[in-house]
Amino acid sequence: MVRQVDKMKLIRRFHDILCPNVRKVVEGTKKLVAKYVVKAPIYEQFEVSMSYQEHEQFLVDLPGGSCSCRSWDLHKIHCAHVMTFIYYMNHG
Predict the structure, then answer these.
(1) What is the structure's pLDDT at 9?
(2) Burial code of 42-70, b = ≥16 C-beta within 10 A, e = fewer?
(3) Measuring CA to CA, which residue among 91, 45, 92 is closest to residue 81?
(4) Where residue 87 falls among pLDDT bands split at 50, 70, 90?
(5) Burial class, 85, CB count within 10 angstroms (exposed 0-12 / middle 13-18 / buried 19+)
(6) CB 47 within 8 A of CB 39
(7) DSSP-derived secondary structure letter, 60
(8) The dihedral of CA 61, 25, 88, 69: what is its sign?
(9) How far apart are CA 23 and CA 40, in angstroms?
């Protein structure tokens, strides 16, 4: 019971949309976005690859909510490939 009260006090001090652990993951992933490049679409999927490693390619399906690296599918937090695609669509 004491643990629950302590956790509730901690939560009341927190005023962000994301919880601290998810915020750390997102901030770390944002640093990787600069390393990726978005290529031409394949149907509704876009190909994202590292700028210096052409053999490492991932397909991002934003409407379907999946990436071929499967990180987004497993953790439900955007991977670097999805964030690269979203940045590309907003700043294209």
Answers:
(1) 84
(2) eeebbbbbbeeeeeeebbbbbeeeebbbe
(3) 45
(4) confident
(5) buried
(6) yes
(7) E
(8) negative
(9) 30
Distance of CA 50 to CAs 35, 36, 79, Å? Answer: 6, 4, 13
- 61: which residues sit within 8 A by CB, 6+ positions away? 44, 45, 67
Round to whole Å and give the CA distance between 36 and 45: 16
Burial class from Cβ neighbours inside 10 Å (0-12, 13-18, 19+) for residue 78 reads buried
Residue 46 phi, psi (nearest 5): -115, 145
The model's pLDDT over 32-49, given as tens digits with 9 standing for 90+, comes to: 888 888 887 777 788 888
Whole-angstrom distance, CA of residue 90 vs CA of residue 51? 19
Chain segment 25-84, per-residue pLDDT in tens: 888 888 888 888 888 777 778 888 887 766 788 889 888 888 998 988 888 888 888 888
The domains of the chain are located at 2-91
